[in-house]
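Continuing the series of single-chain predictions for the mutant panel. This is the parent chain; the variants come on the following pages.
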Amino acid sequence: MTLFVKPGLTKCKKNINIPAGNEAMAPQKSAKGRGNEMNRLILVVLICCCCLALEPLAWAGGNILPGGTIGGAASLGRGGASNAVVGDGSAFYHNVANIAGTQFLEFDLSTLVSRSWYQGSDCPDGQNSELGLSPVPLMALTNRLGPNWTIGTAIYGSDGIGVQHKKGPYRKSLLTSVNFTTAIAYNNDDNTFSAGFGADVVYGQLSCRGIFDQLGIAVTPVDVTNDLDGIGYGWRLGVRQEFTEWLTASLSYSPPRKLKLRGSSDIALFDLELGRLKAETEINFPGKLGLGLLLKPAETVRVSVDADLNLYDLEKINLDFGLFQLAQITEWKSNPSVKVGVEKDFNANWTGRAGAGILWPAIPIEHRTRTIPDGLGFHGALGGTWTNDAKDFAIDFAVGVSGADGEVISPMGEGQTKNRIGYAAIAARWLF
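Parent structure:
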């Protein structure tokens, strides 16, 4: 997720620094040009709304969406280290201040192939989950309102966990959200400082199937399937400061997003359906506090470093059935991550990148199961960008792997999980 051109600063005629490749944005636009921009905005909003309705279908049988695999192809290629990087759709997730001074239309498609493995006292021979294949699109549009203001909108999958097994006491867990973010950003005249604010509309989904264990003991004959979804809201803000030509720092914050989910719970005894109950719950999806650095040790080399704290506020999932309530204790904790990315410009058309990161676990051992795994996570990726000679179109691409190994202590016994994900991404970006 990078700009269609090489990052950096280029001098314009009035000695004002603007992001490289944005020279075409400097002239004032005609009324016709402004009309075309409005048409583009309407078109992308309609496309994003369609994707918002379709994207949750892609998560069936998936696995985990780690922090390093959120965003488009360029951000994936730098290992997710994008908090201080300007010019692509990942700004809507990592730091909305980074849309300042940009004007682009971006289409990304990332595909995750995942599998989880479990072995424990209740499954001594081990068991693989179903293979997950999860397309994750990202679409973004930004438009300058003048020399100092930029607006934009984007849709993207912001987080998720999902594992599915064909058999066993715990069959399926899916908890994911999709963000539709509208943002505005300000940059000063020399483009060394920017600040942004974004408003989120969030779609969330909770789907799980397993034995009844909410009372702290495993009632193996009773099987419960929950399917709920709903809408919530959130906000995010960020700032970015360029101190020198070789050092830029950034800070971003988004609080946990509260969603109210409604749906149903199906109860079965020895696989015989007993009935369906209406259910609802409130869930706080994680926020994020992020710090980013962008270093330029050489003219054609950039190093980005992110340190994030994923802000969880999920002590329990309280299912309300009207006449009674059941609580699933979760106690998910805020967890840190560190990501590092390197970019190298080989010539005017080609840029290469690599990145890696580590993510500490959020789920306590005693609240993990084979379908809710967690552990010390890692990811690594390679990618690049091809830019045309006119500097108004680029293609980004990336491939990578991630995973997490951890212990499990559930009412069914103790065990271990191993989670592996391979992902590939490609993006097209037009610069106006």
